[in-house]
Amino acid sequence: MTERMLGALASSPIGFGAMVVSPGMYGDIDEERGQAALHAAIDAGARLIDTADGYGADGHNERAVGRAVRERRDEVVLATKFGFRIPDGAEPHRFPVNYAFGELAVNCAPEYVRGYAEQSLRNLGTDVIDLYYPHFPDPQVPFEETVGAVAELIGDGLVRHLGLSNVTAAQLRAAHAVHPVAAVQVQWSMWQPIDAALLAAARELGVGVVAWSPLGGGFLTGTVRQVADGDFRQQISRFSAENLAANNDRYAPVRAIAAELGVTPGQLALAWLLRQYEHVVPIPGSRTPAHIAENQAAADLVLDDAVLERIDKALAEFAPAGVGALLPH
Ligand SMILES: NC(=O)c1ccc[n+]([C@@H]2O[C@H](COP(=O)([O-])OP(=O)(O)OC[C@H]3O[C@@H](n4cnc5c(N)ncnc54)[C@H](OP(=O)(O)O)[C@@H]3O)[C@@H](O)[C@H]2O)c1
């Protein structure tokens, strides 16, 4: 399988978002199913495994990833994020978001960053993090200071590459002046466009883009007809019963193009993303080995210009009901 570069870091074209293997987001999940999903992802060719210290209770997600890669560390690129696991006595710095949670709280003060990384290294059972991101810029800490703390970890060999998650173009430029950035991680999919200024800055600076929720939290696979109790998507207005039904209707023209090509709508959504930028790596999450294999296979799909044009025309007419962006653009 071909490689995609995120700055100087080589990845598979499509990675794996591990958030799904912890209870609390897409409902409940047991250990066995989570481990099977992680192994299925690596077996299918996902090299970039994305986790965060804030996924699951008490580092659950990083520990699950650590268990899965114990014997397979050289097969993966481990990416994790910090900021949500605020130490006792440290102040939560709150900020509003549009999506699901209403408000989030981080603490990315530089004095805590080394401790975050050391805890993540223990959770992951490794001696180096390949790609390390502040999960969100801390509204109360100058971003350059947070980034400078990661740069020190890189200097000390605890981290290989700097990533930034949920940033603006201006924040990317400011961070890149402190230390070269390998990748920005942002919400980007057929129903959630990337901020054009951020993509332009990434291109100009040679920075990769890791696309989170590349399947629109499952919607773009065309298989979501309702969302169960205990699933965090119940708090996202695009997934309310009424909006979901309307959105499925409005998405029909894109599903029709997938059917014509003999691929699934989810594969079309991933292949479309891969055509948007030569340095984008989508990180779909799934707890279902057959879905994971299907998603990885999308890396081999080549969409020609005529098909791309038809998809873009259908997307221009696809106006989803409800709010979908985590942060306002
Ligand atoms: N940086 C950030 O702030 C941030 C925020 C959110 C997410 N992320 C990262 O991005 C990753 C992915 O995002 P996400 O989980 O929000 O959304 P996603 O990958 O767009 O969607 C995941 C959902 O799609 C379903 N799915 C996946 N493949 C499928 C297929 N082939 N057919 C049918 N259904 C399929 C999964 O269900 P099944 O399990 O049934 O397959 C799951 O419900 C996360 O795991 C996390 O690593 C980062």
Which fold name fills CATH's third level, the topology of the domain at 4-218 and 277-287?
TIM Barrel
Overall radius of gyration: 19 Å
Quaternary structure type? single chain
- CATH homologous superfamily title of the domain at 4-218 and 277-287: NADP-dependent oxidoreductase domain
Strands of the biggest beta sheet: in what spatial order?
A: 3-4-5-8-9-10-11-12
Task: Assign the CATH class of the domain at 4-218 and 277-287.
Answer: Alpha Beta
SSE string: EEEHEHEEEHEHEHEHEHHHEHH
Terminal Cα span: 34 Å
The bound ligands are:
NADP nicotinamide-adenine-dinucleotide phosphate
- Mean pLDDT across the residues is 96
Total strands: 12
Q: What does the largest sheet look like? A: 8 strands, parallel
Q: Do you know the CATH architecture of the domain at 4-218 and 277-287?
A: Alpha-Beta Barrel
GO molecular function, one term: oxidoreductase activity
Keywords: Oxidoreductase
Domain NADP-dependent oxidoreductase: 13-315
Protein name: Aldo/keto reductase
Explain what this protein looks like in three dimensions.
The structure is a single chain. Helices cover 38% and strands 16% of the residues. It has 329 residues and is of the alpha/beta class. The protein has a domain at 4-218 and 277-287: NADP-dependent oxidoreductase domain (TIM Barrel). Helix 1 (31-44) crosses helix 2, helix 1 (31-44) packs parallel to helix 10 (289-297) and helix 5 packs parallel to helix 6 (196-205). It is globular, with a radius of gyration of 19 Å. The two termini are 34 Å apart. The structure holds NADP nicotinamide-adenine-dinucleotide phosphate (NAP). Residues 17-20, 26, 50, 165-166, 185, 212-218, 221, 223, 266, 283-288, 291, 294-295 line the site of NADP nicotinamide-adenine-dinucleotide phosphate. NADP nicotinamide-adenine-dinucleotide phosphate (NAP) binds next to helix 10.
